[in-house]
Design brief:
By secondary structure, the chain is mainly beta. The chain is elongated and about 40 Å long.
Length: about 80
Amino acid sequence: MIKKGACVGIGSLVTPGVTIGQGSVIGAGSVVVKDIPDWCLAAGSPCKVMRFLPEEGYYYNKATKQNEPIPGFNKEKA
């Protein structure tokens, strides 16, 4: 199952029964054999989690090195 907002790169293979979490990104040419959690970047063969991404409505601030809310973002409208 591929959840809402997930992106799977071209040429990737997702084996049956695997779940790709909401907002996750799978790199091109990856072989996904295990479940991938929500909001992460994963790639490789076999696919491994490389890093976690900010959730919907947040962004990564390089100056503070933290995820911060997007000003004026409304989750109910998204």
